[in-house]
Every structure is written in C-alpha cells, then in structure tokens.
Amino acid sequence: MAAQRKASRYVVPVAVAGIAAATIGLVPALAASGDPDLPEITAQQLVEKIAASDTQTLSGTFKISTDLGLPAFDGLLGGLADGMASGAGEGSGSAEGTADPSAQLTKLVSGTHTLKIAADGPERQKLTLLDGKEQYSLIHDGDDVWAYDSRSNTVLHEKADAGAEEDGGRAPEKELPASPKELADEVLKAAGDTTSITVGGTANVAGRDAYRLVVEPKQQGSTVDSITIAVDAATGTPLKFTLDSTSGGKPVVDAGFTKVDFGRPAASEFDFTVPKGAKVTEGDQLEKEFGEGRGDHGKAPEDLEKALGDFGLGGADANGPEVIGEGWTAIAVFDSGAPAPKTEEAPKEVQGFLDSLGDKVSGKFGSGTVFKTKIVNALMTDDGKVYVGAVTPQALVDAADAAK
Q1: How far is CA 330 from its chain centroid?
Q2: Chosen CATH of 309-402 out of 3.40.50, 1.10.3680, 3.30.310, 1.10.3470
Q3: pLDDT per residue over 281-292, tens digit each?
Q4: Which pTM does this prediction carry?
C-alpha cells in the first residue's frame, strides 16, 4: 500500500495545528500563582522540559473537540462519503462502513470525541475511537497494523513495513501520533521573533499537576489568538493542547487527557484477533479497490484531499505555492492556471457548503470569493488564484491587491 495510507497519518487532526504553528520567541516569564502550587519556572525552562521528555509508555483516555466554524460540515462529509459509496459499488462502504483510517478519522475534524490510547515504545501503540456502543481501533503491534470498525465488522490489515520499497528503502513511520505531544511539537519545532511565549500559571489535568505554556502571535492580522499547552510538571509530557481563535467562542482545537497512566500497558492490550464473521481486507487490496476499476469514483478521496488541503479549499501547482510574509501571517499563493469553478456547478452537498462559507469580495485584483473558517481563510479569485492563510479575510484581499 502506498505510504500515504499508513495508519500513522490518521490519528489526530494536526492540520490546523500545523498551519497555526509559527516560529516561537522564547520570552522568559515566571509562572503565575495558581492551584496547584508548583515551583516557579521560566518559559525557556518549560520548553526545555518538553524537549527533554522521553515518555515511551502510557495509557489513558482523552477527549478532542474541534470547532472550525464550518456550517453543516458533518453533512458535507456524510454526503460526499455516501455519494462515493453509492457510485463505487457494493461493498465499498462509506465512512460508517469501512475500516480504512482515511475514512473513519475524518470524524475528528468536527464535534467532540473520546479516544483511548496505549503506547509501549515505538513498536506497540493502540488507539480506539469510541462512538456510543460502537468503536474504531487502530493497533500497531510489531510488524502488523490492524484497523477494526465494529459498526461494519470490517478489518483492514497491513504490514508495518509495507511501502518501504516504494519509499526508496526507507523505514516507514511506525509511531501513532496519539497524544497532545504531537500537537505541541508542531508549535515548538522552530524559534523566531514573531511569537510571545510565557508561562500562564498552573493547572490540574487528568489528576496531574501541570504548567500552562501560552503561545501568542506578536503580529497583527492572524486568526490565531493563542495556543495553550498544559505540560505535566513531573515528566514534561504535554497533557492538553488548546488552540483559540481571535473570533472567540469555543476553541478551534481542544485535545487533552481525562485519564493518564505512565506505566507500561499489559502486552495483551495490543493483541488483536479478527472477530467472528468480520470481513478482512489487506492493505494492497484496498489500494487496488480505490485505484482501479471505479472510474472517477476511485479518485474521489484523493481529489477531496487535494481540494480541501489544510482546510484551505485550494490545491498547489506543480512548483508548489509562493509564500507571502512570514510567521503567523504567512499566506500561501497557488495559481491553478484556470478560472475558478462556479459553485453552482458543484454537487449539491458541496454547493450548499461553499455558499454558506463564501463572501464575494473585490479589489485591485478583480473579484473573487473568500471562504472562511475560524482559523484558516482562503480567497479564490475569479482568474484562478488562491490565497490561503491563518489570517483575516482582509489580509488575503490586501495580499491579492499587492500582487497586482
């Protein structure tokens, strides 16, 4: 199976965090008083504590809530999934009837979800998405990766080293990014002078004493208000990640442990036995089903991913995007080379979604439509250019005007 279908890609929705991640200036700040009462620490020291953390074993439960401000987003995904399923033929299933992670874990981009995780070093991880009485599980145990959807009683199996030859012999990623640490790493991976970072007091997360690391843009025009990372005082492990938008309201992303144990999980936690009557699909078989013999429907998941991108609703040209600005206010510019598609020509599910998001705008650049979320906005000009960034709509219009 192609590397892009590896299960390690589909655990938490890091796209928003990746776009919001900016270079971080380490501004020394003492922790504010709070409960619990912890020793004072500077932001520099706290970041170093996160970097030094080497948690290899843990188990627990965490909740993730995502609010992108997308009206009827679930309806859009459901409609597209059902449409692909009906056109793909019997047995293909929708997001509710397949063990394929690319279909199942799109659920995490909206609403509130509860997940259970377990990790025992780089060779064993397990994540279970709970949905009422139903559940969806990803299990990595040595050489095997299993995905199981209890609703449809279907199983997807592939070898953990599948795709190594396709990647030029490089070993594939095996770790499942199943904790807020992955989100924190997206923010802390670089340093610069566009960001303020301070310690904003203390907190208790999942029964653990923690410091609150607060990351805020210094630049004007970003849609990111702040990122707060609750860091375990004892281990340096991020326990909670919160991304807030300047538009206010609920956080865009709020992912945190409600229970956590840093002991080694039982080996049996990673055992998987195919349930009675379950349909088992091997990874290469799934790739063949989606890639061959289905006409345009076989390309639908890939096309949708390209179309939505990082919630920017635009695709890159062959040479990649041009980037205007830096840090939190960076804007990616794509040139499709063709006039923007008319929303009235799109499928009805997509048409209603785009119309609810889009605002007509004009300027020196001509005219176009701004598509809005709480964190990422995109301007699609009528002549086929796309401006995308975690910036205000006006910043996109100004960038388009300046390009003329």
Answers
A1: 19
A2: 3.30.310
A3: 887 765 655 554
A4: 0.72
